[in-house]
């Protein structure tokens, strides 16, 4: 089994991108002028896609490239050295002419604008003009039939900006000989950057989870654990890169934190999810669809990238690690229940969240509560509640790590 897991590690090192650093703005980067930018639809609104004129005004000319993605239809525009920070897409004139509009810094030196479309389109014109030092990119896109909708030829092309790993990832802790290093916990605040997650008024899931995980990190470090954050600021990190970052650092456990939104009365209380591609739960399906959809809307579409052989190997590795994920989920649920936290009536559930797909790291997604529930929302803003939750998570990790150590000892025998 050790040789098998090592083979899986090598396979994943070749198949997945190396963890990227957080995304800072480049010094001297151009700025977007939101007030001078616009989206204009041609003709009367008859409920069908209309030709669109999109203008992106910037403080100076910058290199750019455009392409389309499907499911849902999107126009993606990548810019070199353009800083979107501080600019809100909803304030751009004409933003309501399209189903969705997002932008933000994407990787070092590059930013991305994503325009969700009402149907298939084609690029008619793309022209960048400059005057008195300022610049404007003018895009003209027009509706086309499905057969004429030209998108990127494959999903891997959308990963152009993710460098490939050149070294094998660290082995999972349980597959190594006795180790004295601290347990490594990957902490993943859901969403971020151009993907704010669930929103209730001025409250965004991404910001709330970032704040909570910062407090949790302090508690875990004080408890002797090593923490690997998938993001440390309000930046966008694709789902696959979050897992890759944890893998490259040799994480022993991956914890993703969320506080979603569902229709009133549909969900409340803490819920713990483990991977289950066959789960049949309407609420879980709705949440999984939103999580993956948000990642796709950012311009990274990973649909169909799995090689058949790689998929079989990863499924086998996942079979080995799934009981470890389930074990932690049950221990955490028991700890939270014992400490008096409000839990969903089924506290441990299965769901097809992509962030839980890692085959070689025990992974759990924790819904701390739902922003749409008044009681849950109040808890998330209560320092005492957050402190007790962090301590409970740390205790559950400690109990699980002792169980893992016994398991590893049995494997060595």
TrEMBL record:
Pfam families: Amidase_3, AMIN. It comes from the Bacteria. SMART domains: Ami_3 (SM00646). Keywords: Hydrolase, Signal. Residues 243-398 form the MurNAc-LAA domain. It is an enzyme of class 3 (hydrolase). InterPro entries: AMIN_dom, MurNAc-LAA_cat, N-acetylmuramoyl_amidase_3. Gene3D superfamilies: 2.60.40.3500, Zn-dependent exopeptidases. This is N-acetylmuramoyl-L-alanine amidase. It comes from Paracoccus aminophilus JCM 7686.
């Amino acid at each position: 089994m050790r040789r098998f897991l090592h083979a899986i590690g090598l396979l994943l090192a070749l198949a997945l991108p190396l963890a990227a650093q957080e995304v800072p703005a480049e010094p001297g980067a151009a700025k977007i002028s939101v007030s001078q930018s616009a989206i204009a639809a041609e003709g009367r609104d008859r409920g069908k896609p209309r030709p669109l004129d999109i203008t992106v005004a910037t403080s100076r000319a910058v290199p750019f490239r455009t392409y389309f993605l499907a499911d849902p239809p999107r126009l993606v525009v990548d810019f070199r050295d353009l800083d979107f920070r501080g600019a809100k897409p909803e304030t751009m004139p004409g933003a309501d002419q399209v189903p969705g509009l997002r932008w933000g810094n994407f990787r070092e030196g590059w930013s991305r604008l994503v325009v969700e479309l009402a149907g298939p389109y084609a690029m008619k014109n793309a022209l960048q003009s400059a005057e008195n030092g300022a610049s404007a990119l003018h895009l003209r896109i027009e509706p086309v039939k499905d057969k004429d909708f030209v998108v990127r030829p494959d999903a891997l092309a959308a990963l152009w900006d993710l460098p490939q790993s050149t070294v094998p990832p660290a082995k999972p802790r349980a597959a190594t000989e006795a180790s004295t290093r601290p347990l490594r916990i990957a902490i993943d605040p859901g969403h971020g950057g151009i993907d704010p997650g669930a929103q209730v008024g001025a409250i965004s899931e991404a910001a709330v989870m970032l704040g909570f995980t910062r407090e949790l990190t302090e508690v875990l470090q004080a408890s002797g654990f090593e923490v690997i954050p998938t993001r440390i600021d309000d930046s966008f990190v694709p789902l696959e890169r979050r897992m890759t970052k944890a893998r490259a650092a040799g994480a022993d456990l991956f914890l993703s934190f969320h506080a979603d939104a569902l229709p009133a009365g549909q969900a409340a209380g803490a819920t713990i999810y483990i991977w289950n591609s066959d789960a049949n739960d309407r609420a879980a399906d709705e949440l999984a669809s939103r999580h993956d959809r948000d990642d796709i809307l950012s311009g990274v579409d990973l649909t169909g990238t799995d090689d058949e052989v790689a998929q079989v190997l990863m499924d086998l590795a996942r079979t080995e690690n799934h009981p470890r994920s389930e074990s932690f989920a049950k221990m955490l649920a028991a700890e939270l229940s014992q400490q008096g936290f409000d839990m969903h009536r089924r506290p441990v559930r299965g769901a097809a969240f992509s962030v839980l797909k890692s085959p070689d790291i025990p992974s759990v997604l924790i819904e701390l509560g739902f922003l749409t529930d008044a009681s849950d929302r109040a808890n998330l803003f209560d320092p005492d509640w957050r402190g007790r939750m962090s301590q409970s998570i740390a205790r559950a990790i400690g109990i699980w790590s002792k169980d893992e150590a016994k398991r590893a000892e049995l494997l060595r025998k």
